[in-house]
Amino acid sequence: MKFALIGCGLIARSHADALGRIEGSELIAVCDNREEVADGLAQEYGCKSYVDAEKMLDDAKPDAVIICVPTFIHETYAAMCAKRKIHVLCEKPLERHPDTCKKLINEVKDAGIIFMTAQVVRFWAGYVDIKRMFDAGELGDIYMMHFRRVSSRAGQYGQWLFNPELGGGAWGDMLVHDIDYLRYLAGPFDKVYSNAVKDETGCYNNVMANIIFKSGIHAVAETSFTQQTGYPFSFSVNIVGSKATLEYSYHAGATIADRSGSECKMKIWRKDIGLEESFVEEYDAYESQLRYYINCLEEKKQPEIITLEQSYDVICMIEAIKESADKGEIITL
Fold it and tell me: Within 10 Å of residue 193's Cβ, how many Cβ atoms?
């Protein structure tokens, strides 16, 4: 299975490393409009480099492309691949606005390519266990869920991310992980009220979204890009149910790319039993995600863990969070 990468920024390396560990897959080309960046990554992984994506697609003829460019141009490159019937794994979020998401969805469906949004948290150690317990009813009726994802504004992040229109900051980059996972657990929103603060970038880089789902479950999703220098990239989950209370936490380096020496813990307090320390077997979620996607390619089927419709829902839910912050009102979807 021959892969190419479009975009050689921070997250591209996680995908390239994962591909190198999957037998039968090969990274044959990378592309970035910064020639020195593309050349550097290509030399490291032993493949060809390009600065023009269309030329790369036509010359290298990959089976599939991993899109790692900024969010607001996902549709541009997805359409480029769809035109050539090249399958796509696209970094999250799907796109910047619901209307552009619809355009992207129509283009890839018309082309008949196998497309998946890389919402890696659905494959992450611990989160996979939480989903299993949730679906099996081990936690009982859910009273409240609190998801938290925070980091400092590490220098590796591109400046487009802190443009309110192009990236949106924490709510457009970090919060989308937990909103996607909450959509995975509890379905679409009914109502949301967002308590959010902008910083000097003009972005909502501190957000607490109070959510009621159509399923009746209540949750809070918290994110921040303004932790001070040296604060580790961290996320946590707290779920309170009628049968159990669950706590999960993870700490990495300054960014999610720095996962060496990470700490991952899960505790469960079961009704009438008490504390149960749960061992979380850590693995590379990017590799797990790619293995699943490659299996979809081999079986010629669209992904079921992450569907285009769910990815579209997530963008609508994120937009509702921003609208609530802008207006200071409860938003009903």
Answer: 17
